[in-house]
Amino acid sequence: MLRAYGTRELPRALSVLIGNVAAARENVRRLDGQPDYNRIWPGTDVARTPEHGIMEAVVDEMRARNVFASVDLHNNTGLNPHYACVTRLWHPDLQLAALFGRTVVYFRRPLGVQTMAFAELCPSVTCECGKTGDESGVAHAEDYLEACLQLAEAPAHSVRPGDVHLFHTVATVQVPRATSFAFDASPADLVFGEDLEWFNFRELPSGTAFARCNGTAAQCLEVWNELGEEVSDEFFEREGDFIRLRRPVMPSMLTRDARVIRQDCLCYFMERHPLPD
Fold first, then answer.
1. Rounded distance, CA 143 to CA 149, Å?
2. Rounded distance, CA 65 to CA 68, Å?
3. Is the pTM here over 0.90, yes or no?
4. Which residue ranges make up each domain of the chain?
5. φ and ψ at 271, to 5 degrees?
6. Most exposed of 58, 140, 157, 256 (fewest Cβ within 10 Å)?
7. For 258-267, what is each residue's pLDDT tens digit?
8. Could you give the dihedral angle defined by the CA atoms of residues 78, 212, 250 and 218, in that order, rounded to the nearest 10 degrees?
């Protein structure tokens, strides 16, 4: 996008923060020993590291610049559509999200994310642009940023019904540290289907087989709600060797990347959410 402008002046000021360069070089979320750079922004519940100070300084600098809008561009590791995320149901945030696409996710966990920190300053969104190397995601991000540069203001009126499909992230699913897992016939406490990623953004009915549990423990998956409470019994039930959904859900961010699962989570569970008036 910047190359396309050449020596021409941009329509408005643009500040660019490039995140974890060392991890990006290795095409991973974070290196061993590093904090997750999208969990250490102001408001985090993660134990303090030197990197926390960097993020605080960035927020202070952007506050001084009276920033117009915040766009956090992400890749992800699973089969997910392109979608936008917001951390509050304010009309300017939803309008900025709708500019990216019709699928919008509202979430309040995890804490310490960039979008939540900047929501205190300006309309703020996360844009999930597909897997690394997905050229359609690159083009989508470029077109979106160009559109944002052309905005005179973030519209403050409500998003019209039908313009977006709004979902609310209600829980985070994690594999316990002591539980081994696999995606094939390898010996493991927990075995997921090879087609697990195809569950993403699909409304799954109660009773859906989510995994096979070979261990003797009654709980093979942990589920944490927005209050930080463990609520696996609300979402899963054990039936023989299978873990099945106790209630309908829509997963997002399911991945077969074992390192990401260990470093972050297996997935999120979402439900449809009404648009604010």
1. 10
2. 9
3. yes
4. 2-163, 170-269
5. -135, 155
6. 157
7. 999 999 999 9
8. -120
